[in-house]
Amino acid sequence: MKILYSFNKKGAEAEFWKREIAAASNEQFTYIPFNHDRYLDTSLYLQAQRLDDLYYEYHPGLMAMYEDVKAIIQEQAIDVLLVDTCPPYHPDWLKNLPIYKALRVADGPLTAYERDFAYTHAYDLVLYHTPAYSRDLEMAEKLRYVGAKKTAFWPLALFDAGYEPDLEEEQVFAKKRDIDVVFVGALHLGKMPLIAKVKKAFGSRCRIHGLTSLKKNIYFNLKYGFPGWIKPITQSEYIPLYQRAKIGFNVHNRGKYTVGGYRLFELPANGVMQISDGDEYLNTFFEEGKEIIGYSKADELIKKINYYLKHDAERIDIAKKAYRRVIKDYRISHLLHRVGAIIREASSGAK
Asked: 351 falls in which pLDDT band (50, 70, 90)?
Protein backbone atom coordinates (compact mmCIF):
# COMPACT_ATOMS: atom_id res chain seq x y z
CA MET A 1 0.00 0.00 0.00
CA LYS A 2 1.32 3.44 -0.97
CA ILE A 3 0.36 6.32 1.32
CA LEU A 4 0.86 9.96 0.38
CA TYR A 5 1.32 11.74 3.73
CA SER A 6 0.39 15.41 3.38
CA PHE A 7 1.47 17.85 6.11
CA ASN A 8 2.59 21.46 6.56
CA LYS A 9 5.84 22.18 8.39
CA LYS A 10 8.68 24.68 8.11
CA GLY A 11 12.45 24.68 8.55
CA ALA A 12 14.15 21.95 10.55
CA GLU A 13 10.78 20.47 11.54
CA ALA A 14 9.86 20.05 7.88
CA GLU A 15 13.13 18.25 7.21
CA PHE A 16 12.81 15.67 9.95
CA TRP A 17 9.13 15.06 9.20
CA LYS A 18 10.01 14.35 5.58
CA ARG A 19 12.99 12.18 6.49
CA GLU A 20 11.34 10.12 9.22
CA ILE A 21 8.05 9.58 7.42
CA ALA A 22 9.86 8.22 4.37
CA ALA A 23 12.16 6.08 6.54
CA ALA A 24 9.17 4.28 8.09
CA SER A 25 8.40 2.55 4.78
CA ASN A 26 8.58 -1.25 4.81
CA GLU A 27 7.48 -4.18 2.67
CA GLN A 28 3.82 -3.55 3.55
CA PHE A 29 3.55 0.23 3.44
CA THR A 30 5.36 2.88 1.44
CA TYR A 31 5.10 6.41 2.82
CA ILE A 32 5.60 9.34 0.47
CA PRO A 33 5.93 12.61 2.46
CA PHE A 34 4.35 15.68 0.87
CA ASN A 35 4.92 19.03 2.59
CA HIS A 36 2.19 21.28 1.20
CA ASP A 37 3.47 24.30 3.15
CA ARG A 38 5.34 25.78 0.18
CA TYR A 39 2.24 26.40 -1.90
CA LEU A 40 0.44 28.97 0.24
CA ASP A 41 0.66 30.31 3.76
CA THR A 42 -1.25 28.26 6.30
CA SER A 43 -2.90 31.38 7.72
CA LEU A 44 -4.86 31.69 4.47
CA TYR A 45 -6.85 28.54 5.20
CA LEU A 46 -6.89 28.22 8.98
CA GLN A 47 -10.68 28.43 8.86
CA ALA A 48 -12.78 26.25 6.57
CA GLN A 49 -14.67 29.25 5.18
CA ARG A 50 -11.41 30.86 4.10
CA LEU A 51 -10.41 27.69 2.24
CA ASP A 52 -13.79 27.73 0.55
CA ASP A 53 -13.10 31.31 -0.55
CA LEU A 54 -9.69 30.34 -1.95
CA TYR A 55 -11.20 27.43 -3.82
CA TYR A 56 -13.95 29.63 -5.27
CA GLU A 57 -11.34 32.18 -6.42
CA TYR A 58 -9.09 29.51 -7.99
CA HIS A 59 -6.18 30.68 -5.83
CA PRO A 60 -3.05 29.91 -7.91
CA GLY A 61 -1.11 28.36 -5.03
CA LEU A 62 -4.01 26.13 -4.09
CA MET A 63 -4.62 25.06 -7.68
CA ALA A 64 -0.89 24.31 -8.18
CA MET A 65 -0.93 22.14 -5.04
CA TYR A 66 -3.94 20.21 -6.27
CA GLU A 67 -2.37 19.60 -9.68
CA ASP A 68 0.87 18.39 -8.09
CA VAL A 69 -1.02 16.05 -5.75
CA LYS A 70 -2.95 14.56 -8.66
CA ALA A 71 0.30 14.10 -10.61
CA ILE A 72 2.00 12.31 -7.69
CA ILE A 73 -1.02 10.07 -7.19
CA GLN A 74 -0.97 9.07 -10.85
CA GLU A 75 2.80 8.75 -11.30
CA GLN A 76 3.42 6.79 -8.10
CA ALA A 77 0.17 4.79 -8.06
CA ILE A 78 -0.85 6.13 -4.65
CA ASP A 79 -3.52 4.20 -2.78
CA VAL A 80 -4.20 6.56 0.12
CA LEU A 81 -4.07 10.30 0.78
CA LEU A 82 -3.38 10.86 4.49
CA VAL A 83 -3.76 14.50 5.56
CA ASP A 84 -2.36 15.63 8.90
CA THR A 85 -4.08 18.53 10.71
CA CYS A 86 -5.29 21.82 9.22
CA PRO A 87 -6.27 20.35 5.83
CA PRO A 88 -5.83 22.43 2.64
CA TYR A 89 -8.02 20.16 0.52
CA HIS A 90 -11.50 21.40 -0.31
CA PRO A 91 -14.19 18.72 0.07
CA ASP A 92 -15.54 19.37 -3.44
CA TRP A 93 -12.09 18.70 -4.88
CA LEU A 94 -11.66 15.58 -2.77
CA LYS A 95 -15.01 14.24 -3.96
CA ASN A 96 -13.52 13.47 -7.38
CA LEU A 97 -10.24 12.04 -6.09
CA PRO A 98 -10.52 8.29 -6.75
CA ILE A 99 -8.39 6.99 -3.86
CA TYR A 100 -8.92 6.29 -0.17
CA LYS A 101 -8.77 9.47 1.93
CA ALA A 102 -7.86 9.76 5.63
CA LEU A 103 -7.70 12.85 7.81
CA ARG A 104 -5.91 13.17 11.14
CA VAL A 105 -7.36 15.84 13.47
CA ALA A 106 -4.96 16.85 16.24
CA ASP A 107 -5.76 20.39 17.37
CA GLY A 108 -8.63 19.53 19.69
CA PRO A 109 -11.84 21.40 20.55
CA LEU A 110 -10.27 24.87 20.40
CA THR A 111 -10.19 24.72 16.59
CA ALA A 112 -12.45 21.79 15.76
CA TYR A 113 -15.33 23.89 14.47
CA GLU A 114 -12.98 26.05 12.40
CA ARG A 115 -10.97 23.42 10.58
CA ASP A 116 -11.93 19.86 11.47
CA PHE A 117 -15.65 19.23 11.53
CA ALA A 118 -16.29 21.00 8.23
CA TYR A 119 -14.19 18.38 6.45
CA THR A 120 -15.08 15.09 8.11
CA HIS A 121 -17.68 14.15 5.49
CA ALA A 122 -15.05 14.36 2.73
CA TYR A 123 -12.81 11.60 4.13
CA ASP A 124 -13.27 7.86 4.31
CA LEU A 125 -11.54 7.72 7.69
CA VAL A 126 -10.93 10.31 10.40
CA LEU A 127 -8.10 9.66 12.87
CA TYR A 128 -8.06 11.38 16.25
CA HIS A 129 -5.05 11.79 18.56
CA THR A 130 -6.93 11.68 21.87
CA PRO A 131 -10.27 10.19 22.92
CA ALA A 132 -11.09 13.33 24.91
CA TYR A 133 -13.31 16.08 23.51
CA SER A 134 -15.82 17.63 25.93
CA ARG A 135 -17.95 17.10 29.02
CA ASP A 136 -20.73 15.70 26.82
CA LEU A 137 -19.01 13.59 24.17
CA GLU A 138 -15.75 11.79 23.53
CA MET A 139 -14.00 12.50 20.26
CA ALA A 140 -15.06 9.35 18.38
CA GLU A 141 -18.72 9.99 19.16
CA LYS A 142 -18.43 13.66 18.24
CA LEU A 143 -16.79 12.86 14.91
CA ARG A 144 -19.53 10.40 14.01
CA TYR A 145 -22.11 12.98 15.06
CA VAL A 146 -20.68 15.52 12.57
CA GLY A 147 -20.58 13.06 9.70
CA ALA A 148 -17.40 11.00 9.87
CA LYS A 149 -17.87 7.67 8.07
CA LYS A 150 -15.24 5.82 10.11
CA THR A 151 -13.00 6.85 12.99
CA ALA A 152 -9.92 5.46 14.71
CA PHE A 153 -7.61 6.48 17.53
CA TRP A 154 -4.07 7.27 16.36
CA PRO A 155 -1.88 9.06 18.93
CA LEU A 156 0.84 11.54 18.13
CA ALA A 157 4.37 10.20 17.93
CA LEU A 158 7.90 10.57 19.17
CA PHE A 159 10.11 11.59 16.25
CA ASP A 160 13.75 10.54 16.38
CA ALA A 161 14.58 14.25 16.18
CA GLY A 162 12.91 14.68 19.58
CA TYR A 163 15.48 12.65 21.52
CA GLU A 164 18.78 10.76 21.02
CA PRO A 165 17.82 7.33 19.68
CA ASP A 166 21.45 6.14 19.68
CA LEU A 167 21.71 6.38 23.46
CA GLU A 168 21.04 3.35 25.65
CA GLU A 169 18.73 3.71 28.63
CA GLU A 170 21.67 3.76 31.04
CA GLN A 171 23.24 6.65 29.14
CA VAL A 172 20.02 8.67 29.20
CA PHE A 173 19.67 8.32 32.95
CA ALA A 174 23.35 8.91 33.63
CA LYS A 175 22.97 12.52 32.47
CA LYS A 176 23.59 15.17 35.12
CA ARG A 177 20.20 16.73 35.84
CA ASP A 178 20.74 20.17 37.32
CA ILE A 179 17.35 21.64 36.37
CA ASP A 180 14.56 20.76 38.79
CA VAL A 181 11.53 21.64 36.66
CA VAL A 182 11.01 22.38 32.97
CA PHE A 183 8.22 23.38 30.64
CA VAL A 184 8.53 24.11 26.92
CA GLY A 185 5.40 25.15 25.08
CA ALA A 186 3.35 27.99 23.66
CA LEU A 187 2.41 30.71 26.14
CA HIS A 188 -1.34 30.49 25.59
CA LEU A 189 -3.59 32.71 27.67
CA GLY A 190 -5.34 29.71 29.19
CA LYS A 191 -2.06 28.26 30.43
CA MET A 192 -0.68 31.46 31.94
CA PRO A 193 -2.19 31.23 35.46
CA LEU A 194 -0.78 27.76 36.11
CA ILE A 195 2.61 28.46 34.52
CA ALA A 196 2.91 31.64 36.60
CA LYS A 197 2.14 29.77 39.84
CA VAL A 198 4.70 27.07 39.14
CA LYS A 199 7.37 29.57 38.11
CA LYS A 200 6.81 31.64 41.24
CA ALA A 201 6.91 28.53 43.44
CA PHE A 202 10.26 27.33 42.12
CA GLY A 203 11.91 30.48 40.80
CA SER A 204 15.24 29.88 39.04
CA ARG A 205 14.89 26.14 39.66
CA CYS A 206 12.14 26.15 37.01
CA ARG A 207 12.98 26.74 33.35
CA ILE A 208 10.13 27.92 31.10
CA HIS A 209 10.54 28.39 27.35
CA GLY A 210 8.17 28.53 24.44
CA LEU A 211 6.43 30.31 21.62
CA THR A 212 5.47 33.79 22.72
CA SER A 213 5.70 37.46 21.75
CA LEU A 214 6.67 40.76 23.32
CA LYS A 215 3.01 41.61 23.84
CA LYS A 216 2.25 38.27 25.52
CA ASN A 217 5.33 38.52 27.75
CA ILE A 218 4.36 41.99 28.92
CA TYR A 219 0.80 40.85 29.60
CA PHE A 220 2.01 37.70 31.40
CA ASN A 221 4.29 39.61 33.74
CA LEU A 222 1.91 42.49 34.46
CA LYS A 223 -1.08 40.22 34.98
CA TYR A 224 0.64 37.62 37.15
CA GLY A 225 3.13 39.68 39.11
CA PHE A 226 6.35 39.26 37.13
CA PRO A 227 6.84 35.50 37.28
CA GLY A 228 9.53 35.79 34.60
CA TRP A 229 10.28 36.58 30.99
CA ILE A 230 9.59 33.64 28.65
CA LYS A 231 12.05 33.12 25.81
CA PRO A 232 11.69 30.79 22.84
CA ILE A 233 14.31 28.16 22.05
CA THR A 234 15.17 26.46 18.79
CA GLN A 235 14.31 22.84 18.03
CA SER A 236 17.97 21.87 18.49
CA GLU A 237 17.92 23.19 22.08
CA TYR A 238 15.04 20.98 23.26
CA ILE A 239 17.03 17.79 23.78
CA PRO A 240 19.97 19.30 25.76
CA LEU A 241 17.47 21.14 27.96
CA TYR A 242 15.34 18.06 28.64
CA GLN A 243 18.41 15.95 29.33
CA ARG A 244 19.25 18.30 32.20
CA ALA A 245 15.76 18.25 33.73
CA LYS A 246 14.45 16.08 36.56
CA ILE A 247 10.72 16.83 36.20
CA GLY A 248 8.71 18.19 33.31
CA PHE A 249 5.15 19.35 33.76
CA ASN A 250 2.50 19.32 31.09
CA VAL A 251 -0.45 21.66 30.79
CA HIS A 252 -3.06 21.69 28.03
CA ASN A 253 -5.68 24.17 26.90
CA ARG A 254 -8.99 22.96 28.35
CA GLY A 255 -7.03 20.52 30.52
CA LYS A 256 -8.02 16.91 30.06
CA TYR A 257 -10.03 17.62 26.92
CA THR A 258 -6.89 18.34 24.87
CA VAL A 259 -4.37 15.98 26.45
CA GLY A 260 -2.10 14.10 24.05
CA GLY A 261 0.41 16.53 22.50
CA TYR A 262 3.95 15.80 21.37
CA ARG A 263 5.43 16.93 24.71
CA LEU A 264 3.70 13.95 26.35
CA PHE A 265 6.16 11.67 24.53
CA GLU A 266 9.26 13.87 24.23
CA LEU A 267 9.67 14.35 27.99
CA PRO A 268 9.94 10.65 28.92
CA ALA A 269 12.05 9.90 25.84
CA ASN A 270 14.68 12.22 27.30
CA GLY A 271 14.51 10.72 30.79
CA VAL A 272 12.32 13.40 32.33
CA MET A 273 9.71 12.36 34.86
CA GLN A 274 6.40 13.83 33.75
CA ILE A 275 3.53 15.32 35.75
CA SER A 276 0.56 16.12 33.54
CA ASP A 277 -3.05 17.18 33.57
CA GLY A 278 -5.41 14.87 31.71
CA ASP A 279 -7.22 13.11 34.57
CA GLU A 280 -8.74 9.79 33.42
CA TYR A 281 -7.47 10.24 29.86
CA LEU A 282 -3.83 9.97 30.93
CA ASN A 283 -4.30 6.20 31.10
CA THR A 284 -4.96 6.19 27.37
CA PHE A 285 -1.27 6.91 26.84
CA PHE A 286 0.60 5.83 29.99
CA GLU A 287 -0.20 4.06 33.23
CA GLU A 288 -0.93 6.85 35.65
CA GLY A 289 0.89 6.44 38.96
CA LYS A 290 3.59 4.23 37.44
CA GLU A 291 4.68 5.83 34.15
CA ILE A 292 3.25 9.32 34.59
CA ILE A 293 1.80 11.34 37.48
CA GLY A 294 -1.45 13.25 37.12
CA TYR A 295 -2.67 16.50 38.62
CA SER A 296 -5.80 18.63 38.31
CA LYS A 297 -4.97 21.99 39.94
CA ALA A 298 -1.87 24.18 40.19
CA ASP A 299 -1.49 23.71 43.95
CA GLU A 300 -1.62 19.93 43.50
CA LEU A 301 1.00 20.13 40.74
CA ILE A 302 3.35 22.19 42.94
CA LYS A 303 2.90 19.78 45.83
CA LYS A 304 3.72 16.79 43.64
CA ILE A 305 6.76 18.46 42.09
CA ASN A 306 8.09 19.14 45.59
CA TYR A 307 7.43 15.54 46.63
CA TYR A 308 9.26 13.95 43.71
CA LEU A 309 12.18 16.35 43.97
CA LYS A 310 12.67 14.99 47.47
CA HIS A 311 12.21 11.35 46.46
CA ASP A 312 14.74 10.68 43.74
CA ALA A 313 14.35 6.91 43.65
CA GLU A 314 10.60 7.15 43.02
CA ARG A 315 11.09 9.89 40.42
CA ILE A 316 13.70 7.93 38.49
CA ASP A 317 11.65 4.73 38.63
CA ILE A 318 8.65 6.50 37.06
CA ALA A 319 10.85 8.18 34.47
CA LYS A 320 12.45 4.87 33.47
CA LYS A 321 9.12 3.09 33.11
CA ALA A 322 7.80 5.92 30.93
CA TYR A 323 10.99 5.90 28.86
CA ARG A 324 10.58 2.18 28.14
CA ARG A 325 6.93 2.65 27.25
CA VAL A 326 7.51 5.51 24.84
CA ILE A 327 10.37 3.73 23.07
CA LYS A 328 8.27 0.59 22.76
CA ASP A 329 4.95 2.11 21.67
CA TYR A 330 5.24 5.70 20.48
CA ARG A 331 8.13 6.07 18.06
CA ILE A 332 7.09 7.51 14.70
CA SER A 333 8.03 4.37 12.75
CA HIS A 334 5.90 2.21 15.05
CA LEU A 335 2.91 4.53 14.80
CA LEU A 336 3.14 4.83 11.02
CA HIS A 337 3.07 1.06 10.75
CA ARG A 338 0.07 1.08 13.08
CA VAL A 339 -1.83 3.62 10.99
CA GLY A 340 -1.01 1.68 7.83
CA ALA A 341 -2.70 -1.34 9.37
CA ILE A 342 -5.67 0.78 10.51
CA ILE A 343 -6.12 2.19 7.01
CA ARG A 344 -5.75 -1.21 5.37
CA GLU A 345 -8.41 -2.70 7.61
CA ALA A 346 -10.76 0.27 7.23
CA SER A 347 -10.38 0.46 3.46
CA SER A 348 -10.88 -3.27 2.94
CA GLY A 349 -14.06 -3.07 4.97
CA ALA A 350 -15.25 -0.23 2.76
CA LYS A 351 -15.11 -2.27 -0.42
From this structure: very low
pLDDT digits (tens, 9 = 90+) for 37-65: 999 999 999 999 999 999 999 999 999 99
**By the 8 A CB rule, do 256 and 134 touch?**
no
- Residue 349 binned pLDDT confidence (cut-offs 50, 70, 90): low
Inter-residue contact 276 to 282 (CB < 8 Å): yes
Q: Which CATH class is domain 160-329?
A: alpha beta
Task: Indicate the helix (H) or strand (E) that contains 151.
Answer: strand 151-153
**How does the average pLDDT of the chain come out, rounded?**
95
CATH class of 2-157+331-346: alpha beta
Domain locations in the chain? Answer: 2-157+331-346, 160-329
Spatial neighbors of 307 by CB under 8 A, at least 6 apart, are none
Distance CA 313, CA 31 (A): 42
* Residues whose CB is less than 8 angstroms from the CB of residue 127 and which lie 6 or more positions away in sequence, other chains included: 102, 103, 104, 105, 151, 152, 153, 154, 339, 342
Total-model pTM: 0.93
Q: Secondary structure of 183-239 in the HEC alphabet? A: EECCCCHHHHHHHHHHHHHHHHHEEEECCCCHHHHHHHHHHCCCCCCCECCCHHHHH
